[in-house]
Write a structure and sequence with these properties.
The complex is a heterodimer. By secondary structure, chain A is α/β, with parallel strands linked by helices. Chain A is built from 14 helices and 10 strands. Chain A has 2 domains: 179 residues, Periplasmic binding protein-like II (D-Maltodextrin-Binding Protein, domain 2); 147 residues, Periplasmic binding protein-like II (D-Maltodextrin-Binding Protein, domain 2), CATH 3.40.190.10. Chain B is an all-alpha fold. Chain B contains 24 helices and 4 strands. In chain B, helix 8 packs antiparallel against helix 11. The chains are: A alpha/beta, B mainly alpha. At the A-B interface, helix 1, strand 2, helix 3, helix 9 and helix 10 of A face helix 4, helix 13, helix 18 and helix 23 of B.
Chain lengths: 340, 581
């Protein structure tokens, strides 16, 4: 009996607690896939100008954030998505989860970095692109030149020295494969990937893993994205990051407002801030391509004209053909399973 | 009623009847709780596998597609291969270790037991990182400790790596179940065997093995299923070797294809159902080993056997310790494997995400709650299922439900719980039913619940193994003496089973500290967790801080375990006095 009473009281208390937190105005829940080491830098800027808004952050890798968002579709928890792949947000949009919103400063944003609808469903903050992370110590030991192009990667000298993300598990993997197919055309693209497969030591499930494995000397070259390689170098790893001279595959990290019964005004305040010049300058310290020029010089190590480095990426085509490409890729390379 | 039983005093009859009802109600409650936390989320999963991505009913079309895709289909064989190999190795190693701990005069049993349990204290990612640092291309062993000795490349990535890490992961679980089984025995059987002139080997095969048959079957069952469903290690060291669990990851996390993810999850459930049937058939023959008149077995001194046991345990312990030493080393090194300066800078967690020490505190809280609630629920349910009479259908159903969570990868539990607990309500036949459990979503409660369910089966099997070896005579006698069953439960069953109960609590605690797969979907901004922090730091390339956090998790588990053995030494001695002759 007593236990029963206790349970009821506990449940009532929990419900009240929940209701009261939901009613607390100055609080928003933000889902993000931004790199873990970036978030505190940006949030400090936000706190300075908006000390009254309490930002709760849930940070996971892109795949998990997207899966979480889609799984919560019927009763969304997040108020805002911040810095998550535009391709993921397109999936959320297809599921009818995004509320169109035109944040302040939208007029400054490059047309390639935002949803083409007006008002847009998502607005980009910066782009990330395919880069090769090469371990200089291992490359020297093995007598390998630093790869500068896709064409370099299929040279026999790199056989068994390259690690690349599996496009069926990783967004970075997919944007690279999609870029190769868009650059070379499908027929030549697949022929190229066949040759590349010969040189691949292993495919990984995460896009940052190849860079890390290269940094730890597990492979000479990791096909990954630029930011990762530069951060690893900062931490003291013997790596150099290069970008394929044919052009890099890329995606946009973007923000969106989640469609809910009660959209908090603070969510819009946050979205306005998230593309404001003050934070754009911080994004621009480590990323060369931001939603609009950040005023910073290009971070060291990136090509002089990072915009030109990015291929003309047809997101619609990529989204429409994603399943077909992945199926074909899996049939060709993934079925072979054992690396023995 | 009174007419039929005639002679009995009315008051006594009434009490027995009330008791019967109480027991039935409790059993019903236990089944209902399992149904809510296991069946309902599973139904959601099953129904997903029959829909297309737009939510239209398509029948078995998804399954047809699954079986016609060679890349997906091949994973079934791969999964079976690694799981069978893991099971054989783990159960053999675990049996040897458990035997040494329970049936020989091995010195320092507590130390060896703690070392053997250490791998379940470990987040899988730490296992993965440790393996790479030992056996990867730049690994200590591969390169012969920086060239000091000739290196060996075992070809870690692929089935080899998966089997090694799964053995590491399942060995303690096999050891735990088998040592509970081996501890419970009747010395009279051995005396009889000896006086009949049977050789040691003969006694082993005629008395020891049949005595632990049930434990052995459980251990095989648990190792197989755990290896079959785990995805943490294969994701890190699996290379291009596809198995079912990583396929789910690819479908759900890589492609947001929930439908195909659900299909693979259902395929993953099939072996569990089969294993369950085998388990049931075998179990029907199980006889209680501890009878009311039982005499506990005290291992005799035997220089050869004790020496062999010591050698074996030292060898296994060194392997495990070597593994941890590597992880600790990796957390102290500045830049592996190029700048080998040692220092504590990775333990500050400044400039890394994941929540640092706050996350660690949260994890400890969550693990404590999971241990308390999990143990109470598991042992209570196991008792009701094992020691009630009648209600066979209900008991069988509850038993099956208790084993079902074992077959669910944490990833599947996590997603199913989002779908289930986050739903504001359901429309059933046009009637809107609000979800009474919706409040749990995003709180500590759902994290605890997911852990209790995720680690329910092994705990349940441990409790059942202990209970099974208690003679039913205890219940019969107390019933005929008019002692209510709950008095017997608290005064006989719980004290006798105390080692198993504490083992279960430790198991819950350690696993809850280390787990990632389910909670990564369920934690909220208010409840950051250490294990999730490890995953996120590893993801961000902060491998050394990730290792450091992993080492802290292991340290806390070891500390709690030491504290527990200190605190319970007295209690255990008192409650286990019956085992001393």
């Amino acid at each position: 009996m007593n236990r029963c009473k206790f349970l009821i009281v506990a449940m009532a208390a929990a419900i009240m607690l929940l209701v009261s937190t939901a009613a607390f105005a100055g609080e928003i829940l933000v889902y993000t896939a931004l790199e873990d080491d970036e978030i505190p830098i940006y949030l400090d800027i936000f706190k300075k100008s908006h000390p009254d808004i309490d930002v709760k952050i849930v940070r996971d890798s892109t795949g998990i954030v997207t899966a979480k968002l889609l799984a919560e579709k019927d009763n969304p928890q997040a108020d805002v998505v911040w810095g998550t792949a535009a391709t993921s947000l397109m999936l959320c949009d297809q599921a009818g989860m995004l509320e169109p919103y035109a944040p302040k400063y939208l007029a400054k944003v490059r047309p390639t970095m935002r949803d083409s609808n007006t008002p847009p469903r998502w607005v980009g903050i910066k782009a990330w692109m395919t880069g090769f992370v090469t371990n200089t110590i291992e490359a020297k030991r093995l007598g390998l030149p630093i790869p500068q192009s896709y064409a370099d990667l299929i040279k026999p000298i790199y056989k068994g020295q390259i690690i690349m993300p599996n496009p069926a598990s990783s967004g970075t993997g997919f944007l690279t494969v999609s870029a190769i197919l868009q650059l070379m055309g499908e027929e030549k693209g697949w022929a190229y990937l066949d040759k590349l497969h010969e040189n691949i030591l292993r495919y990984t499930h995460s896009g940052s893993k190849p860079a890390k494995l290269a940094g730890a000397g597990e492979a000479a070259v990791g096909v990954s994205f630029g930011y990762r390689g530069f951060m690893q170098k900062q931490k003291g790893e013997p790596v150099v990051t290069t970008f394929p001279k044919e052009g890099s595959g890329w995606d946009v990290e973007a923000n969106a407002l989640i469609k809910k019964d009660h959209i908090k005004p603070d969510a819009k305040v946050f979205l306005d801030w998230a593309i404001s010049p003050e934070v754009m300058a911080a994004y621009g310290k480590v990323y060369p391509v931001t939603a609009y020029p950040s005023g910073n010089p290009i971070p060291e190590g990136y090509p002089k004209d990072p915009q030109a480095q990015m291929i003309k990426n047809d997101f619609q085509w990529a989204a429409k053909n994603r399943m077909r490409i992945l199926k074909e890729w899996t049939r060709r390379y993934d079925g072979k399973s054992d690396p023995k | 009623m009174a007419e039929v039983t005639g002679g009995l005093p009315a008051s006594r009859l009434a009490r027995v009847d009330v008791e019967g009802w109480l027991k039935r109600c409790l059993l019903l409650l236990a089944s209902a709780w399992l149904a809510v936390v296991v069946i309902l989320p599973l139904l959601q999963l099953l129904s997903k596998s029959l829909l297309d991505n737009q939510g239209n009913f398509v029948g078995l079309l998804n399954y047809a597609e699954y079986f016609s895709t060679p890349a997906l289909r091949n994973s079934i064989g791969n999964s079976l291969y690694v799981s069978v190999a893991t099971t054989i190795v783990s159960v053999l190693l675990g049996f040897g270790f458990a035997y040494a701990l329970t049936r020989t005069n091995l010195p320092g049993k507590g130390v060896f037991r703690s070392i053997a349990m250490a791998p379940i204290f470990t987040p899988t990612l730490l296992n993965g990182i440790g393996l790479i640092y030992l056996f990867g291309r730049k690994g200590l062993i591969t390169r012969g400790f920086f060239g000091a000795i000739p290196g060996v490349d075992i070809g870690l990535y692929g089935s080899t790596g998966i089997i090694i890490s799964e053995v590491l992961f399942t060995f303690p679980q096999a050891m735990m179940i088998l040592s509970v089984a081996l501890r419970m025995t009747d010395a009279r059987l051995y005396e009889a065997s000896e006086s009949l002139g049977a050789s040691r080997i003969r006694t082993f095969f005629a008395v020891t093995l049949p005595g632990v048959k049930y434990g052995l079957i459980s251990a095989v069952f648990v190792c197989f299923i755990l290896a079959f469903t785990d995805f943490g290690a294969p994701q890190v060291v699996g290379g291009n070797y596809n198995i079912l669990a990583t396929d789910i990851y690819k479908q759900v996390i890589g492609q947001q294809n929930f439908v195909m993810g659900a299909v693979v999850s259902v395929v993953l459930l099939i072996p569990t159902a089969l294993a369950f049937i085998v388990d049931r058939i075998a179990q029907r023959r199980q006889v209680a080993l501890i009878q009311a008149r039982s005499v506990p077995l005290v291992p005799k001194r035997d220089a050869v056997l004790d020496g062999a046991a010591l050698g074996y345990c030292v060898f296994i312990s060194l392997l495990i310790l070597g593994f941890f030493a590597t992880a600790v080393f990796a957390s102290l090194v500045k830049v592996w494997p190029y700048t080998l300066d040692l220092g504590l800078w990775h333990y500050s967690f400044k400039g890394t995400g994941g929540g640092g020490y706050q996350a660690l505190c949260n994890s400890i809280r969550m693990a404590l709650y999971s241990a308390v609630f999990g143990t109470a629920l598991t042992f209570g349910a196991a008792y009701l299922i094992e020691k009630s009479r009648g209600q066979n259908v209900l008991r069988q159903a509850s038993y099956f439900l208790s084993l079902l969570p074992l077959a669910l990868p944490g990833l599947v539990i996590g997603l199913a719980y989002i779908f289930f607990f986050n739903a504001p309500g359901w429309d059933v036949l046009g009637v809107r039913i609000p979800n009474p459990l919706n409040w749990m979503y995003g709180t500590m409660a759902i994290l605890v619940l997911s852990n209790v369910v995720h680690f329910y089966s092994v705990s349940f099997l441990t409790a059942t193994t202990a209970l099974k070896q208690l003679d039913r005579e205890f219940e019969t006698v107390s019933e005929s003496l008019g002692v209510p069953f709950y008095v017997t439960f608290f005064r006989v069953t719980v004290p006798v089973c105390l080692p198993a109960i504490l083992e279960v609590a430790m198991y819950y605690f350690a696993n809850s500290m280390a787990t990632v797969s389910a909670v990564i979907f369920l934690y909220s901004a208010d409840t950051p967790l250490a294990s999730v922090a490890i995953a996120n730091m590893d993801d961000a390339g902060d491998i050394a801080p990730a290792c450091a956090m992993g080492v802290l998790v292991v340290l806390i588990n070891v500390l709690v375990r030491m504290l527990y053995s200190l605190l319970t030494r007295g209690v255990k001695r008192r409650s286990q006095r019956w085992t001393i002759r």
